[in-house]
Amino acid sequence: MAHGHGHGKMELPDYRQWKIEGTPLETVQERLAAQELRDPWGRNDITFFDVFFKGFKWGFGAFVVAAGAESYLESLNKDKKHH
C-alpha cells in the first residue's frame, strides 16, 4: 500500500557518536559512581545538550556582519530613488 512514493528506509545515527564527556551529565555520572550507582540510560539524554547554542557565536557574528553590510549599502543608496 506504499505505492512507491520514494520513501526509503530511515537512517538512524550511530549510538556511539553521543558522548557525555564535557556535559553536565558527566558530573551526574561521576556522582552516581561515587555512590556505586549507574545510569545506563544517561547517554540518551545527551542529545538535549548543545542543541540551541551550538554554533551560536558564529551565527550571531555572521548576523552582525550581514546587518552591518546591509545598513552600509543602504546608506550609500539613500539619495537614489527606487521607483
From TrEMBL:
It is found in: Mitochondrion inner membrane. Its main location: mitochondrion. Keywords: Electron transport, Membrane, Mitochondrion, Mitochondrion inner membrane, Respiratory chain, Transmembrane, Transmembrane helix, Transport. It holds the Pfam family NDUF_B12. GO terms for cellular component: mitochondrial inner membrane. It is a single-pass membrane protein. InterPro entries: NDUFB3. GO terms for biological process: electron transport chain; mitochondrial respiratory chain complex I assembly. Accessory subunit of the mitochondrial membrane respiratory chain NADH dehydrogenase (Complex I), that is believed not to be involved in catalysis. Complex I functions in the transfer of electrons from NADH to the respiratory chain. The immediate electron acceptor for the enzyme is believed to be ubiquinone. Belongs to the complex I NDUFB3 subunit family. This is NADH dehydrogenase [ubiquinone] 1 beta subcomplex subunit 3. It comes from Aotus nancymaae (Ma's night monkey).
